């Protein structure tokens, strides 16, 4: 069959010899279709936000992380792990990220009217590509202004990859947004490039301990050491710290014993629609 494909490619291309791999061709085709569909996702209203609870040591809801979902008409729910990397390769992430920010800010404004929800924060993931857009600061400020959301309630999650190149520029963007009250969390901490001396200078508010370390904290000494030192580091840098991916009571107890008092994970709630949020877990 591969020979046949090669033969046909050769004929179609005249004298030129093409390397033609039907499996690769099929993958490229599927990808191109997904990308074409993703272009239509926003205009067709197929994106939605799920919110995952973040709780304190008393299991009270203190905030949520906004996680984007794509309700594809034929494929069903497509996970962000599948379409965010695709969107990052072209400029689609900029419009998707803009929509996420807008939707989260509208939610903050709705919550501001009820004393029960007024103090909640929303953490929004920001891709490096989106963050580096020339008008990123203006877009965030304009979104806050026209939705009426309080900047102090908006937390932007960035990853270490943002600081590998042009770190002074990233630093400056964060500093300017912080002047307006927006806060920053460093997502997936420990999985990427980390220069501790640089971390000291970053205008951060919170470290998020990556779920891969939390998962193994009771079984693996290296993970336990990484989590314990991240908590200690956050204390000495006067940053807040939150553990991601907390799934068991044992993990929670270990984290509390080591000085971590904010948690996110299936133990407290899976990401879901806004009306499914528990206020006390
Ligand atoms: P993330 O920002 O690190 O988000 C945490 C991921 O861990 C989420 O996956 C969440 O559902 C999952 N999770 C939470 N608690 C647990 C747990 O206890 N156990 C396990 N095994 N997993 C848990 P999700 O929703 O599939 O999102 C995956 C990634 O996609 C996110 O990782 C984030 O990097 C990206 N992403 C999601 N929404 C957005 C967005 O609006 N913009 C951008 N740029 N990226 C997004
Ligand atoms: Mg995140
Ligand atoms: Mg994370
Ligand atoms: Mg992650």
From TrEMBL:
Superkingdom of source: Bacteria
Domain EAL: 31-281
Protein name: cyclic-guanylate-specific phosphodiesterase
Annotated organism of origin: Halomonas fontilapidosi
Span covered, complete protein: 750 to 1030 of 1030
């Amino acid at each position: 069959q591969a020979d046949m494909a090669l033969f046909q490619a050769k004929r179609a291309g005249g004298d030129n010899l093409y390397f033609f791999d039907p499996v690769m061709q099929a993958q490229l085709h599927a990808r191109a279709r997904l990308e074409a569909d993703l272009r239509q996702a926003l205009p067709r209203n197929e994106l939605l936000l799920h919110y995952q609870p973040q709780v304190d040591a008393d299991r009270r809801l203190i905030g949520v992380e906004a996680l984007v979902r794509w309700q594809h008409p034929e494929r069903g729910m497509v996970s962000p792990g599948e379409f965010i990397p695709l969107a990052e390769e072209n400029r689609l992430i900029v419009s998707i990220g803009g929509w996420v920010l807008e939707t989260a800010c509208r939610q903050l404004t709705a919550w501001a009217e009820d004393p029960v929800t007024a103090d909640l924060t929303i953490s929004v993931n920001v891709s490096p590509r989106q963050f580096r857009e020339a008008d990123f600061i203006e877009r965030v400020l304009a979104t806050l202004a026209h939705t009426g959301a309080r900047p102090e309630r908006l937390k932007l999650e960035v990853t270490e990859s943002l600081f590998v190149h042009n770190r002074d520029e990233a630093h400056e963007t964060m500093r300017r947004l912080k002047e307006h009250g927006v806060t920053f969390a460093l997502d997936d901490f420990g999985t990427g490039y980390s220069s501790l001396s640089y971390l000291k200078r970053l205008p951060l508010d919170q470290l998020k301990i990556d779920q891969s370390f939390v998962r193994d904290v009771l079984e693996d000494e290296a993970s336990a050491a990484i989590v314990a030192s991240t908590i200690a580091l956050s204390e000495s840098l006067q940053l807040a710290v939150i553990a991601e991916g907390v799934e068991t009571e044992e993990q929670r107890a270990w984290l509390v014993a080591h000085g971590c008092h904010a948690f996110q994970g299936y133990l407290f709630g899976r990401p879901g629609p806004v009306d499914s949020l528990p206020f006390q877990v």
